[in-house]
C-alpha cells in the first residue's frame, strides 16, 4: 500500500492574481452578496402573501429565489472571511460539504431553469396551448417537476462528491482557488483521477449543455409565437421580457459550460467566471425575473402596507 499523509484540512489560496486588492474586493463582494440576499428574500413574502401570484410561474420563481440564496451562501461567506484576513483553512469535512451543496444547488438550478422555460413555453399564445395551460401545469405536475429538480440535483452532487473524495490526497493541501471546486481538488489527488474527470465532464459540462439547448428550443418556439402577435406594442413587450430571461440564462449556464468544457482553463479566467456565477447571477435574477414585474411590485407594496398597519395597531 502507498504511504500518503492523511489530509485533514485544505488551505484556500484565494482568487489568483489579486494580491493587494483584498479590501476593494471585500467591499465589492459584500455589496453584491447583500443585494442578493435582499432581492431574493423580498420575493418570497411577496409570492406567499398575494393570491394573484399563486401560479406555476411564481411557484418556480420562489424555488429559484431559495436556490439563489443557498447557492451564493455556499461559497461567498468563506470568500469574505478570506478577503478580510481571517483563516484560509477549511476542514476536510467542510470542503466535502461545500462541494456537495455547490453542485447540488447549482445542478438543481440548471434543471429549474429548464422547467421554467417549459412553463413559459406552455403559457405563451398559440401554438403553445394557452387554453390547456392550467390543465398541463396543474399543482400536481408543478410539485412533481419541483421535486424532480431537487432529487436530480441531489443525485448529481452525491455522484460527484463521492468520486472526488474517495481518492487519496497527498501531503500538499493548498487549493489554488477560493473555494472547493472539483478541478482544484483533483489536482491534489495522488491516485488516478481520470474517472472523476470524465464523470465531472459528463455530469456538469454536457448536462448543462443539454439543459441549455432545451431552453433555447423552448424560447425559439416562444419567439415564433410572439412574432404572430398583431400588436406591435405587445410584440415589443414580449420580446423585451424574453431577452431579459435569455440574458439571465446565459449568465447562469455560460460559466458552467466554459469552465467544464475546457481541457485546461486559465486559473484567472476560471475565477472570474465562477465569481460571475456565484455572485452576479443570483443578484440579477430577482431583478430580471420578478422585481421588474408589476404584480410582484404590487404584492410587495401590499405586504409592506399590511405590515406597517399591523405595527401601528400594536
Give the helices and strands, then pairings:
Elements: E1 9-12, H1 22-49, H2 56-83, E2 89-91, H3 92-123, H4 133-136, H5 139-165, E3 174-175, H6 182-186, H7 194-227, H8 232-261, H9 267-291, H10 294-313
Parallel strand pairs: 1-3
Antiparallel strand pairs: 1-2
Helix pairs in contact: 1-2, 1-9, 1-10, 2-3, 2-9, 3-5, 3-7, 5-7, 7-8, 8-9
Describe this structure in words.
The protein is mainly alpha-helical. The protein has a single domain, classed as Rhopdopsin 7-helix transmembrane proteins (Up-down Bundle), CATH 1.20.1070.10. It is 74% helix and 3% strand. The protein has 10 helices and 3 strands, in the order βααβαααβααααα. The protein has helices spanning 22-49, 56-83, 92-123, 133-136, 139-165, 182-186, 194-227, 232-261, 267-291, 294-313; strands at 9-12, 89-91, 174-175. A 3-stranded mixed β-sheet has the order 2-1-3. It is globular, with a radius of gyration of 22 Å. 35% of the residues are buried. The mean pLDDT is 79.
Amino acid at each position: 500500500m502507498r504511504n500518503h499523509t492523511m489530509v485533514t484540512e485544505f488551505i484556500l489560496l484565494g482568487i489568483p492574481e489579486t494580491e493587494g486588492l483584498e479590501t476593494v474586493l471585500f467591499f465589492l463582494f459584500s455589496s453584491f452578496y447583500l443585494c442578493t440576499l435582499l432581492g431574493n428574500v423580498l420575493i418570497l413574502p411577496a409570492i406567499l402573501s398575494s393570491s394573484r401570484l399563486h401560479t406555476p410561474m411564481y411557484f418556480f420563481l420562489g424555488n429559484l429565489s431559495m436556490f439563489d440564496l443557498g447557492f451564493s451562501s455556499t461559497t461567498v461567506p468563506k470568500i469574505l472571511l478570506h478577503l478580510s484576513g481571517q483563516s484560509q483553512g477549511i476542514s476536510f469535512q467542510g470542503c466535502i460539504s461545500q462541494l456537495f451543496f455547490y453542485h447540488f444547488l447549482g445542478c438543481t438550478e440548471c434543471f429549474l431553469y429548464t422547467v421554467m422555460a417549459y412553463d413559459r413555453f406552455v403559457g405563451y399564445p398559440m401554438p403553445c396551448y394557452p387554453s390547456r395551460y392550467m390543465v398541463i401545469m396543474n399543482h400536481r405536475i408543478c410539485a412533481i417537476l419541483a421535486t424532480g429538480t431537487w432529487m436530480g440535483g441531489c443525485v448529481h452532487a452525491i455522484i460527484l462528491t463521492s468520486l472526488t473524495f474517495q481518492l487519496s490526497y497527498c501531503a500538499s493541501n493548498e487549493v489554488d482557488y477560493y473555494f472547493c471546486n472539483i478541478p482544484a481538488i483533483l489536482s491534489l489527488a495522488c491516485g488516478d483521477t481520470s474517472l472523476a474527470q470524465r464523470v465531472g465532464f459528463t455530469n456538469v459540462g454536457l448536462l448543462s449543455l443539454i439543459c441549455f439547448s432545451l431552453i433555447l428550443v423552448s424560447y425559439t418556439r416562444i419567439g415564433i409565437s410572439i412574432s404572430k402577435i398583431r400588436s406591435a406594442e405587445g410584440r415589443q413587450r414580449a420580446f423585451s421580457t424574453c431577452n431579459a430571461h435569455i440574458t439571465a440564462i446565459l449568465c447562469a449556464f455560460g460559466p458552467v459550460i466554459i469552465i467544464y468544457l475546457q481541457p485546461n482553463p486559465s486559473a484567472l479566467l476560471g475565477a472570474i467566471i465562477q465569481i460571475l456565477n456565484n455572485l452576479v447571477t443570483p443578484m440579477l435574477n430577482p431583478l430580471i425575473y420578478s422585481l421588474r414585474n408589476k404584480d410582484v411590485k404590487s404584492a410587495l407594496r401590499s405586504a409592506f402596507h399590511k405590515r406597517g398597519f399591523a405595527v401601528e395597531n400594536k
